[in-house]
């Protein structure tokens, strides 16, 4: 992990879209008056005829994306997560997921790490809303390399996909051309003292905690759960059997997100205790992203605290 | 807004206006009138027709097909349950199926 080189996954998304646009002429991009913030403006500049600014009308954007999919195009629809998964939920459900259409919803500005914009713009329940929809694949990439890979990869699979992207800049974790697989978590380290399941912006925090703990003689493993649905059951069961403690950490409500998805697997397949770090069923707040991560206890230090003192 | 922005002259919206909603008439529940003015202000060409007149429907489609640079909205005035005495203009028939006796009566009336 290169802590000095930081990139926001929304930027990685914008750059990957341009590359994808060159490779695949069927790719079209829709935005709802936030192209500068979601970074789809990079695609718009390169391919103005394949970019559609649908205005502040997210429901119509999703319905239009569904229409593009029925015509054989591969639409990528973007806006902030709160407007995508929240405001346009009905269209995502009935017009995209029910007919199983090939729409890629790439939502930026997820979680409390949106920062100053505050609670109205900090989406904390999108993983929950999206993963409960039949046919939907849900991805929450952790860094620049993984985001660029996933944006190109989802063009190859049929059906709706929700990708959760961040505003905050985070370290580059993976080397270029690292191989990933949708539905397969990435295990980093072999430690057996604990497993930390992380997703999105919290993967870098989990890796930081791994380093801190190593100096204390505690060896953990980190699992980057970039795919929330379908969840990687195998890696969850393996970790539950091989490690002493299980922790999940996410910039999302503890209800319905990564921690819940893991709990569902554990309960049914391999009963074990899981400590869930995340936003504890409350709305966000306005502040600097790193301050908010501390306030809501989703930092490396919070993981260390849980592992050392069993704080829950 | 989007159909006007992208000048979708291949888009034709049909409003089946029977003046009834689920709880009551449009005026009683929440009036959406005037429908034509609303669509016109969003850039649509408006055609008002009798929704039970096949010739008028065909004529309206021809007009819609030939208009350039803007979408069309055909507002078809209709009567809910038309041709069946006990269903005509009855709000209650929004979402329920007739029983066998009602079905037989309805078919009898429709065939005449």
Low-confidence stretches of chain A: none
The structural class of chain B is alpha/beta
Fourth CATH level, the homologous superfamily of chain B = Thiamin diphosphate (ThDP)-binding fold, Pyr/PP domains
Please give the CATH architecture of chain B: 3-Layer(aba) Sandwich
CATH topology of chain B: Rossmann fold
Order of helices and strands of chain B: HEHHEHEH
Estimate the global geometry of chain B from the Cα principal axes: elongated
Overall 3D form of chain A: globular
Looking at how many chains there are and whether they match, the oligomeric state comes to heterodimer
Q: Using the coordinates above, name the CATH class of the largest domain in chain A.
A: Alpha Beta
Mean pLDDT of chain B: 96
Rg value of chain B: 17 Å
Largest interface summary: A-B, 6 and 4 residues
Summed up, the domain count of chain B is 1
The CATH superfamily of the largest domain in chain A bears the name Thiamin diphosphate (ThDP)-binding fold, Pyr/PP domains
Q: Element order, helices and strands of chain A?
A: EHEHHEHEHHEHEHEEEEHEEHEHEHH
CATH class of chain B: Alpha Beta
**CA-based gyration radius of chain A:** 18 Å
| Biggest pleated-sheet summary of chain B | 3 strands, parallel
Average predicted confidence as pLDDT of chain A: 97
